[in-house]
Amino acid sequence: MGCDDRSLVYMMTIVYILIIAALASSYRLFVGPTLQDRLVSLNSITIISIIILVFLSIIENIGYYLDIAIAFLFFDFAGMIAFTKYLDERNMK
Question: What's the N-to-C CA distance of the chain in angstroms?
Answer without folding.
Answer: 55
